[in-house]
Amino acid sequence: MPDVKALEEAIKALPPSDLAEFRRWFTEFDAAAWDRQIDSDATSGKLDALLAEAEQDYSTPSARKL
Q1: Is residue 14 a contact partner of residue 22, using CB atoms and an 8 Å limit?
Q2: Is residue 63 within 8 Å of 57, Cβ to Cβ?
Q3: Cβ–Cβ < 8 Å for 30, 38
Q4: Distance between CA atoms of 60 and 23, rounded to whole angstroms?
Q5: Which of 1, 31, 47, 59 is most buried by its number of CB atoms within 10 A?
């Protein structure tokens, strides 16, 4: 597998149209990876403490509905 520097150089060498296509692809790839990570964290309970804190903050008298 190429190292990061080799990938950087290959990306720098792309013509503008290919760079635009790469950006589009990478944006979708990165968003899907983020979604998988969030799903994994939610399923495993890693976000439970944050959810509990948000629910507690929302139930205080100073909270207002959006």
Answers
A1: yes
A2: yes
A3: no
A4: 43
A5: 47
- Tell me the C-alpha to C-alpha distance, in Å, between residue 25 and each of 7, 16, 29, 39: 15, 14, 6, 21
CA-closest candidate to residue 19, choices 10, 28, 32: 10
* Residue in this structure with the two tokens 């520097």, named with its chain if needed: 5
Q: Please give the structure tokens belonging to residue 53.
A: 């804190």
If we measure between CA atoms, which residue out of 36, 11, 4 comes closest to residue 25? 11
Q: Is the pLDDT of residue 17 over 90?
A: yes
Q: Which residues contact 19 (CB under 8 A, 6 or more apart)?
A: 11
Q: Are 42 and 50 in contact (CB under 8 A)?
A: no
Contact 11, 2 (CB under 8 A): no
CA distance 35 to 31: 6
